[in-house]
């Protein structure tokens, strides 16, 4: 009976989604739909390799979730882990795609549909080879600039309007290949810089959310 109930529930959920009715992952509070505005913040990365340079965006959103005392939950309909909170009447959805970087966009698109937001209400947090280690810069949309996770999100959303928080990881030494560099871990000395950098990234995100919610 339990199995049949779950199967029927999924069927009705799929029908509601195809008809355009709001559907939400069971693990996520439906309270987020009661607020008029929402922001989705995505930490791009390889979910199975969270400690690498390439996944530093996921570490940043972990820090953001900690800042707001948010709890992570598995959201299968979003293709990742989701944490939510509310600031005044503004809902915040934080996502970590459970996928490889190159297909992170599929999870982003699912989450955008589930929470009914526009691409301009999405912030992508990702590593950036062209920024020195320790830097953290907000970018207003634009091209992927060679980043596969951003490229995937642009392709799946058919938009370049998503804001970005570019987290600097610097470039490798001349003899080291980029692939092995981004899939490697920060050194002990670098981790000290990373800790400060992530705090700055969180500050940028908090300011964005306060501006959207009207909080000071």
From TrEMBL:
Q: Which Pfam families match?
A: Pept_tRNA_hydro
Q: Does the keyword RNA-binding apply?
A: yes
Listed GO MF terms: peptidyl-tRNA hydrolase activity; tRNA binding
Assigned keywords, A-Z: Hydrolase, RNA-binding, tRNA-binding
Q: Which InterPro entries match?
A: Pept_tRNA_hydro (IPR001328), Pept_tRNA_hydro_sf (IPR036416)
Database matches in SUPFAM superfamilies: Peptidyl-tRNA hydrolase-like (SSF53178)
Q: Which domain of life is it from?
A: Eukaryota
NCBIfam families named among the record's database cross-references? pth
Q: What is this protein called?
A: Probable peptidyl-tRNA hydrolase
Query: What is the primary gene name for this protein?
Result: LOC118426732
């Amino acid at each position: 009976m339990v199995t049949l109930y779950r199967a029927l529930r999924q069927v009705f959920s799929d029908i509601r989604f195809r008809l355009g009715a709001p559907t939400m992952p069971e693990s996520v509070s439906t309270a987020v739909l009661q607020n008029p505005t929402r922001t989705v913040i995505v930490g791009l990365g390889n979910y199975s390799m969270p400690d690498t340079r390439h996944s530093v965006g996921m570490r940043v959103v972990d820090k953001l979730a900690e800042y707001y005392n948010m709890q992570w939950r598995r959201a299968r309909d979003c293709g990742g882990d989701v944490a939510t909170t509310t600031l005044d009447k503004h809902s915040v959805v934080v996502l970590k795609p459970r996928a490889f970087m190159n297909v992170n966009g599929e999870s982003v698109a699912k989450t955008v549909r589930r929470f009914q937001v526009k691409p301009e209400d999405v912030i992508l947090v990702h590593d950036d080879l062209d920024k020195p280690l320790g830097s953290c810069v907000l970018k207003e949309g634009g091209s992927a600039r060679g980043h596969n996770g951003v490229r995937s999100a642009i392709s799946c959303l058919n938009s370049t309007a998503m804001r970005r928080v570019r987290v600097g990881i610097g470039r490798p030494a001349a003899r080291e290949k980029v692939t092995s560099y981004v899939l490697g871990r920060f050194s002990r000395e670098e981790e000290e810089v990373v800790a400060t950098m992530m705090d700055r990234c969180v500050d940028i995100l908090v300011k964005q959310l306060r501006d959207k919610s009207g909080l000071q």
